[in-house]
Each structure stands twice: as structure tokens, then as C-alpha cells.
Write a structure and sequence with these properties.
The chain is an alpha+beta fold and 191 residues long. 30% of the residues lie in helices and 24% in strands. It has helices at 9-28, 78-91, 101-106, 147-152, 156-166; strands at residues 55-61, 64-71, 108-114, 118-119, 132-137, 140-144, 180-184, 186-190. InterPro entries: AMMECR1 (IPR023473), AMMECR1_dom_sf (IPR036071), AMMECR1_domain (IPR002733), AMMECR1_N (IPR027485), AmmeMemoSam_A (IPR027623).
Length: 191
Amino acid sequence: MGISFSLTDAEKNFLSRQARMSIEAGLLGKAVPSIPEPPDTLDRPQAPLMRPLGAFVTITLHRALRGCIGNIVGREPLYKSVWHLAAAAAFSDPRFSPLTLEEWRKAELDISVLGVLQSCPNPEKITVGLHGLVLQWQGHSGVFLPQVPVDQGWDRLEYLENLCLKAGLPKGCWRAPGVDLFCFEAFVFPA
């Protein structure tokens, strides 16, 4: 497993601007006629900005989660996905009220670009801080980005147990026959 792409500083800066412009347009009530496209200088073979990669945008306020929305599998070019996910994290995360301008001034923003989702038949090989996880069983699912267990101070077992809880399932279900457990790596950077 691994990440099949890299992001240059210019690409990270472009994605950061995308996310911030999207949120600020929403805060100011401005309609944007079209999503800004990457400049030609960022056009390179297999450019990640143009690939349909999975991504998450996470907003924190005073080190606490304030919004996080993403897609495990990309459905549109990354630069468009980040635009949409940033607005969704700020204004449509069902766990929170819409972000306010005052909160935005103090908020921190991270972008996670996901590598390929792969089956994880041996949970012993999960590395905390490296692998993000997806669990699916009996119509339930849960996902954690690789940085979550690090932020929470979890070891591998606590990571798996909390993933079960996030999916609305009992602890230990990750061991049950028929459970689908997937892992992925992510390129995470502050926006």
C-alpha cells in the first residue's frame, strides 16, 4: 500500500486557497459563477489536482472538531472536490450548526487527500498514524482518517474499537465474520 501521488507546495497552496475561498464565499453569501481552475503552471502528467481522488476537509476550533466532510473515493477532479467539501464541512456537517464569520477567524483547516482504499485482512498490520480505516458491517459503516487515533492518543486496539462505535456497532465487531475492513493512507496538510 502507499500513496500513488505527491503534492507540490504549489498544489497544496492552490487547494488551500480553494478551500478558503469556498468557505469565505459561503460566509459572505457570494455566488461563484464557476469553481476556479488550477493555473497552467500546475498542469503536469497525472496531476493530482485533476484526478478523482478521495479527500476530506476538516475544520477545528480551539483544537476541537468543528466540521469534517469528505469522500473516500473521488467522484470529480480533486480541485473541485476540495471546493465542495470545504463548503460542506463549514455549512452542512449535520453534527454542527453552520460556521459563523467569527468562528472562521479563529478556525484551523486541514485537507486530507486519500490514497487508494484497500482491503485490510490482517488488522495486526494497521499502523496508527499511517492508516485510515473504513469498517462496513450489517448496513453500518464508519471511517477515521489516519490522524484521528494520533489526536485521540489511541493504540491500535482502541482505534479499532472506536471505529466500531463510530459505525454504530458494538466494540469488538471488527473481529466478526463478514466484517469488511479497509485501510488507506492520506496526504494531510494544513490549509
